[in-house]
Amino acid sequence: MKKYGLIGKSLKHSFSQHYFSEKFLNEKLSDCQYENFELASIDDLPALVESIPDLLGLNVTIPYKQDILPFLKHRDDIVKKIGACNCIKIIGHQLYGYNTDAPAFQLSLQSKIKKHHQCALVLGSGGASKAVQAALSEMGIDFLVVSRHQEGNEIGYEEIGEKMIREHLLIINTTPVGMFPNTEQDPPLPYEALSPQHLLFDLIYNPEKTKFLQQGEARGAQIINGYEMLQLQAEQSWEIWNAE
Length: 244
Prior knowledge:
- The protein is α/β, with parallel strands linked by helices and 244 residues long.
- Helix content is 32%, strand content 22%.
- It has eight helices and eleven strands.
- It has a six-stranded mixed sheet. A five-stranded parallel sheet has the order 8-7-9-10-11, sandwiched between helices.
- Helix 1 links the parallel strand 1 (2-8) and strand 2.
């Protein structure tokens, strides 16, 4: 049996297991299996890999996309650049790290973006944020990173006024704020400054419309959730795991 899986801290509502189980069923891949592996600590990873000899690949989610780095034998160029990994290929118990967040985000965004979306606010500074930042840089879009714990050039939410919202017509939420079951939460922004010119992208897919996206939709903004991005990530992971 070829085994794959997802590691993270809380995986009760994960997308990946359902997606791959459906994929294996639809494509009649009866020798493949995908499981969730909740880890209390990233230090539990080596024991997990040793205990499942036919484990060939893993996806990585919150909060381990950065914590996983010391365990990797090899890192692809995106992982080296941004310092976050969300896909692992396992060869002889050695871990090879990749990042599919950045290319999947870029593919999902580029079909919806318009010429006036040249300045972005990126909410959050974790592993997913770093992937988004890499994609925006690749696309030539200027951005500011907003964080509750500012480092370097990052700004705090208290610094965001209506003028800044009007000047940044692309706003991307990379945080878990608003994710199920805490669906009444949203990032602290002056939403009244949003307009139909704005594009709001939330990496969250559950719920389908977070309160953040609802705030944008109510003011005529274009909105995107993270479902398509997750589909693209999954297929890229599959390609990595099965590449010779």
